[in-house]
Amino acid sequence: MKIIYAIVSSDDGNRVTEVLNENQYMVTKLATTGGFLKKGNCTLMIGTEAEKVDHAIELIKETCGKRQKITCNVPAPNISSISAGYMMMPMTVELGGATIFVTDVERFEKI
Ligand code: 2BA
To answer: Which residues make Cβ contacts (< 8 Å) with residue 33, sequence separation at least 6?
Structure first.
């Protein structure tokens, strides 16, 4: 048996947990904090058979892999019209991504 630890953004945590549950993976979702940015993220613990690890990682990648989104910032009311025009330009931002660790489980029991 293996355990997968997947650190994903808080925004993706619920969606990926649902997808994993729908595919019969058991998940424990922990509210965690990145040590560098000190921002909330989400760590999923997924215990599963070794032969299912690749499939679980594929589901995580499909659901919360790195992706790009085009967004327009809405200018603050006190911003000059020149700056406002600049801020309304569409910008591409990167979202998502996951950091994944897979470890062996020495013993697994439900009592
Ligand atoms: P990522 O490398 O994508 O990491 C996202 C989050 O995943 C991290 O949040 C941390 O919670 C977890 N994580 C990543 N690698 C890990 C590891 N080896 N062990 C345990 N947890 C791990 P943050 O620590 O807040 O980092 C956010 C982003 O800041 C990182 O994105 C990376 O791009 C950057 N970063 C992190 N540490 C850095 C450092 N020492 N120097 C420069 N950039 C750093």
So the answer is: 39, 40, 41
Residue nearest to atom 4 of ligand 1 (CA): 99
Look up residue 56 and give its two tokens: 């679980």
For the chain, what are the domain ranges? Answer: 2-66+95-104
Ligand 1 site residues (CB inside 6 A) read 7, 34-37, 39, 41, 97, 99
In this prediction the pTM is 0.84
Write the pLDDT tens digit of every residue in 18-77.
999 999 999 999 999 999 999 999 999 999 999 999 999 999 999 998 888 888 766 666
CA–CA distance from 31 to each of 5, 34, 90 (Å)? 13, 10, 32
Under CATH, what is the fold of the domain 2-66+95-104? Alpha-Beta Plaits (3.30.70)
Q: Which residue has the tokens 């909330």?
A: 40
* Alpha carbons 69 and 90: distance in angstroms, whole number: 10
